[in-house]
Amino acid sequence: MEGGYVTLWNPESILRSGGQDPGMVQNRQVHKGSVTALEFNPFRSNLLASCGADSQVHIINIENPANPEIYEPGSTQQSEHDGHGAGEVTCLEWNRKVQHILASASNTGVTTIWDLKMKKPAISFRDPANRQRCSSLAWNPEVATQILVAYDDDRNPSLQVWDLRNANYPFKETAGHSKGVLDVAWNLMDPNLMLSCGKDNRTVCWVFSSGQPEVFSETITQQWNFQVRWAPNIPAVFAGASHLDKVAIYSMQQSRNAGVRYAPRWFQRPAGVSFGFGGRLASFGRNESGQATAINMHIVPSEPEIVAEADMFEQLQSTGDYTGYCQKKIDTTQDEHEKLTWKLVQLLFQKGENRPQVVAHLGFDAQAILAKAEQFLGKKPGSILADDSDPTGGWAPS
Question: pLDDT at residue 164 above 50?
Answer without folding.
Answer: yes
